[in-house]
Amino acid sequence: MSERVYGVAVVGAGNIAAAHIDAVGRLPNARVTGVASRTAARAEAVAARHGLRAYDSVEAAARDPEVDVVAVCTPSGTHLDVALAAIEAGKHVVVEKPLEVTVARARQLVAAAEAAGVALATIFMSRFGDANAFVRRAVAEGRLGRLVQGDAYVKWFRDQAYYDSGAWRGTKRLDGGGALMNQAIHQVDLLLWVMGPVAEVFAYADTLAHERLEVEDTLVAALRYESGALGQVAAATSHWPGLPKALHVHGDAGVAIVEDDVLVEWRTRQGGDAERERVLREYGGHATGGAADPMAISFENHRRQYADLFAALDEGRPPAVDGREGLRSVELIEAVYASVAERRPVTLAEMRERWAGR
Question: Is 97 a catalytic residue?
Fold first, then answer.
């Protein structure tokens, strides 16, 4: 670790800003310099709560010479505009998921960061969970044999008050989508990370348990991966009382199941009961998740992701989850939504043709 201490300005004063303030505050080589928000009173309240400075705009935060990194924690559909202001000031950028709400906007953000030569990281903190990283290594080592199915389940519950708490929630322009884009995108990212690219999707979605939403609260999608494996995604905020999020990875020689970033099942043809017990002991444990409460999620993996970013800056390498990695989940989700709208299977190849023609 270098002796440099990185200054981080947090833009946004909503719930997720607390995760970034907490994560950075627990690292020895970083500190939060202040908080900015479109609503000055909210920025001042968050800043006062944490003993920080309140900036009156993202531009003011980006001009601060003590700021090296701008963390974008604003509504999803505003990520591009906030990040561009930081990039133009020469700052590195961390963007909460999703990178943006459309492929076009996400690609514009990636291109801007690359042209400016600044680092761009997308928050997908589940990759930094020990159990998820173990499953990815196990797949790469062939311990599960040939992959045959990879599934993601986010059967959560959010009450109507959750959506009514912010005018942007549940809107296409600022939320980009519903349960899939907002809640299940972390599991979508894990599927792509572990299982590899998706070739084709077929999905249904609806709003079944909430009012005044422009987006879905219930979605199911069938996947065919480029490897030939199959899969499914279930994403919901309509499932009372809410269940743990889950990742199921099946091969012809083994299975791994992770719930709320804790390994709950592990079996392989080659390993016996002793191996299973050892692995579950090492990667199992007590889960904390957001099945019914978005703020019940641990911030530890945010801390780990920030530690990776600062190490990447010290070492002159891209962060582990850079902008191009963040783009992959937006591309898949846009394909899923196209399938819902067109009521047919959609291939990623045809989606790439559409994006190229824009």
Answer: yes
